Amino acid sequence: MAERIVSPGVFTRENDLSFLAQGIGEIGAAFVGPFKQGPAFVPTIIRTQSEFEDKFGKPDGTYYTEYAVQNYLREAGTVTVVRVMSEGGYTQTTPIGLVVSGSLISSIHSTNAGDEEVGFGAFTVNSGTASGSFVVSGSGIGNVSSSLKPSDTNDVSDVFGESPFGSKDGYVYSYFENVATTADYNTETATGVTAVVLPTQIFGGASTAETPFVKSQLISGLRSELFKFHTLGHGTNENKRFKVSISNVKAAGEDGGTDYSSFSVTIRGFADTDKRKVVLESFNNVNLDPASPNFIARRIGDMYRTIDSNGKVTDNGDWLNNSKYLRVEVKAEGSYPVSAAPFGHGAYSNPIKATDATIIPAAVYQTGSSANTAGSSAKYAGFDFETIGVKGDNAHYLNVIPTTSGVGNNVDFGFDSQLSYVMSGSDSSDMVKRQFTLGFQEGFDGKSPSIPNNLGADINGANTQGFDCSTSVSAGSVGYIKALNAISNVDEYDINMLVTPGIVRKFHPSVTTKAIDVCEARSDAFYIADFNGVSDTISEATTQSSAVDTNYAASYYPWVKTVDSNTNKLISVPPSVLMPAVFAANDAIGAEWFAPAGLNRGGIVGAVSVLNRLTHSERDTLYENKVNPIASFPGQGIVAFGQKTLQDKASALDRINVRRLLITVKKFVASTSRFLVFEQNTAQTRGRFINTVQPYLEAIQQRQGLYAFKVVMDESNNGADVVDRNILAGQIFLQPAKTAEFIVIDFNILPTGAAFSA
């Protein structure tokens, strides 16, 4: 409302021009790379170490990215994490599977580090196979006696091991049925046992884990699929993180306000017990009524995000996720009767169900005593999780044992079939007693288990942390580029820094080039790059730096050693693991326009030693070639002792502090100017811009970021031709403050009696 002044008087006004926009130090860096768990390719904002570990896993030395985020969060309040996973899957040739009583048990492979697994050769079987004993013969191993009985001392997983990186000659590798897109089965029969040769198996990319569909009681002789759960994170690890319990089931109409059934959903730790539950989340009195505020999808959430190869984000689903761990997929309204209640679930696709339980236990369902006492804390029905950790138990097979097509699947589980319980009429007195638990399956990493997560001196083009980034079209590069595209949208994600720990330009130029392109296109983020391997010379470092010309990135030399907090051992890490924390600390104690270098703001916390102690002349060589030295000074620690960007041309922007000053100012101007879009192009609007920007720049000047500045937005740059094109034009002139990198002090020795000049 316009101010109304009628009678004479003195009127005072307040115009608050002291507003300062969010500094880039408060926005946070983006870390792109692999993690043990969590959502893939979706930029995720993290604010605490505990939140990071809960979503992406505790650092354990598997990936550099884990340590980089951990160190950064010690100095900063916000970080954006983008998990990279394999996009292309992988192909295995000539693995050999073993079939007993019609059920595929597993595949046995040689221990090699290649992309392709090699089978041992033909299986032969001992006489008398009641216990499933057999002999594996093949090149390099001779004849190995084994058994398929988990309790035997020569059980196959003991004889061969379960790791492709173990000390044994082979390993038992089990895959997930959903990712095998082709399987050319060719049987060869031996005495009592059939070997199945699978010449080619193509495994798909990363996937989330999911439960079977929860099903209704028998209604008119049919069970209806109701809903299933999906993990929010991707990968194999998701299969063993959670389980979901359904309890407190009330029949349709029993819960006031709806004609539908109601029930509770409890998300639990995978390895807990029914007596000692580890409850992560609970959603009580949910139902299947789409119009109800307690509709299961509304209460838990059903949204998930997909990102295509170009970084385009698509949000799927209708209800925001209130669960931190999973989402629910509900069958369409009308596909199930209104009277449907959760009363069991569909078959798992993966667990084994051998005909001879002495060889491999059949998939057993726990019925427990929960059917007898309402509200009982006894065992939940469904798949038996109580023996988790015991070799050969059902929970073990739930996660890792494969099946052939149509073989080994379990039957549906339902109270009315398993316990001979049938709902009759409106009798619902026993329904509340029904409680059961669901496990997850089909989460997959998309990588061959034979490929190690190469770190340190083992990093090469074809393997960095398990990813092949040797060319722009290699599976690892495709994954990294997709993740970088995901973070490229400046309107969607606000970042100030980009880091890809483990990516080295010498070996992975297509990924580093893409990262630089993203920063330049956004024009509001700075890339901390690794250009050389752990043992590369200064010459190699300068060779790599000379091939890049940009003021949106910087490189450092050499690698440093830090302590692994889990093992308490020293590990070698590239500079990008620790330098982001240096930038964050610089911003906290100084500002973005101060240099993240030197003894005051360049100390590398966590660094124990450097892999190459630099001389002064070596630091000169590096700095002349746009590589920032990491120096070790006795008694003063390990310090970033340079702040050059990778720009070839000598200008103010060849320094990190100036580039980051520009990033800061541009972010502020862009954010404030957005409010002027579609406003009238008049002197009043131009005045609003100047009155906002000028005090901001004055504050930066007072904090030593600028020597001088000028803001112009008036008729001089907004003539009639500009206005008629619907353009509001402005100019900002900056004289950025420079750092004192070379301190030159003249010591003048005077003769006795000489006069000192004023």
Write structural notes for this entry.
The protein is an alpha+beta fold and 758 residues long. It has 4 domains: 24-85 and 493-658, Rossmann fold (3-Layer(aba) Sandwich), CATH 3.40.50.11780; 90-203, no CATH class; 208-439, no CATH class; 681-758, no CATH class. Helix content is 20%, strand content 25%. The chain contains 16 helices and 38 strands. The strands form 9 sheets. The protein has an 8-stranded mixed beta sheet with strand order 2-3-1-29-30-31-35-36, with helices on both faces. Strands 15, 16, 17, 23, 24 and 27 form a 6-stranded antiparallel beta sheet that branches. A hairpin with a 4-residue loop joins strand 12 (186-189) and strand 13. Helix 3 packs parallel to helix 11, helix 8 runs parallel beside helix 9 and helix 14 (656-673) packs antiparallel against helix 15. The longest helix is centred in the last third of the chain and has 20 residues, at 683-702. The radius of gyration is 32 Å and the shape is globular.
Keywords:
Rossmann fold; 38 strands; 20% helix; single chain; 6-stranded antiparallel β-sheet
Short summary of the structure?
With 758 residues, the protein is an alpha+beta fold. Helices cover 20% and strands 25% of the residues.
Write the layout of secondary structure elements.
Blueprint: H1 24-27, E1 29-33, E2 44-46, H2 49-56, H3 64-73, E3 79-83, E4 90-93, E5 96-100, E6 103-110, E7 123-124, E8 134-138, E9 142-146, H4 156-160, E10 170-173, E11 180-183, E12 186-189, E13 194-197, E14 200-203, E15 208-210, E16 214-216, E17 225-234, E18 242-250, E19 262-269, E20 279-287, H5 296-300, E21 304-307, E22 313-316, E23 326-330, E24 342-345, E25 365-366, E26 381-383, H6 394-400, E27 413-414, H7 415-418, E28 436-439, H8 475-486, E29 497-504, H9 509-522, E30 526-530, H10 538-546, E31 553-557, E32 560-563, E33 570-573, H11 575-589, H12 598-601, E34 607-610, H13 616-624, E35 627-633, E36 637-640, H14 656-673, H15 683-702, E37 706-712, H16 720-724, E38 731-736
Parallel strand pairs: 1-3, 1-29, 26-28, 29-30, 30-31, 31-35
Antiparallel strand pairs: 2-3, 4-14, 5-6, 5-13, 6-10, 7-8, 8-9, 11-14, 12-13, 15-17, 16-17, 16-24, 17-23, 18-19, 18-28, 19-20, 21-22, 24-27, 25-26, 32-33, 32-34, 35-36, 37-38
Helix pairs in contact: 3-11, 8-9, 14-15
